[in-house]
Write a structure and sequence with these properties.
This protein is mainly β. About 0% of the residues lie in helices and about 50% in strands. The chain has no helices and 11 strands.
Length: about 130
C-alpha cells in the first residue's frame, strides 16, 4: 500500500497559479495510476488529471486541459499538479489518490477504483 500527503493549496486570485504536491510513500515499487480529484460543495467528485506512476502516461480533463499539468518524480516520490490560469470554478478540495493497475501505462479515471487517498488540500480562487 501507499500513503499520500497533499500540500500546496491556498487562496489565489483568478488568473493566478498554484502547484499542488502529493508526497507518495510506501510500496512505490508497484504500478499505480495517480489521480488528482476535486470536489466542491454541492458537486460530485470529479477527476482532474491522472498520471501512470511507472509509465508516465497522462490524462487531463477537458475543463483543465491547457491550464493544468500533472507530473511525477518517482525518485522523489512526488506527484505534482501545476495549475495556471485559475478560474473561480476551480475552487474545490483537491485530493491525490492511487489505484493499483496491471499495466504500467494504464490510466484510471473513475474514483471507485482508487484505494488510497490523501487528506485533501483546499484551493480557493477569488475574483
Amino acid at each position: 500500500q501507499v500513503q499520500l500527503v497533499e500540500s500546496g493549496g491556498g487562496l489565489v486570485q483568478a488568473g493566478g497559479s498554484l502547484t499542488l504536491s502529493c508526497e507518495v510513500s510506501g510500496r512505490t515499487d508497484k504500478n499505480y495510476a495517480m489521480g488528482w480529484f476535486r470536489q466542491s460543495p454541492g458537486k460530485e467528485r470529479e477527476v482532474v488529471a491522472v498520471i501512470a506512476w511507472s509509465g508516465g502516461t497522462t490524462y487531463h480533463a477537458d475543463v483543465v486541459k491547457g491550464r493544468f499539468t500533472v507530473s511525477r518524480d518517482t525518485a522523489k516520490g512526488m506527484v505534482s499538479l501545476q495549475m495556471n490560469s485559475l478560474e473561480l470554478d476551480d475552487t474545490a478540495i483537491y485530493c491525490c489518490a492511487a489505484a493499483s493497475i496491471s499495466h504500467r501505462a494504464e490510466l484510471v479515471l473513475g474514483p471507485k477504483r482508487y484505494s488510497y487517498w490523501g487528506q485533501g488540500t483546499q484551493v480557493t480562487v477569488s475574483s
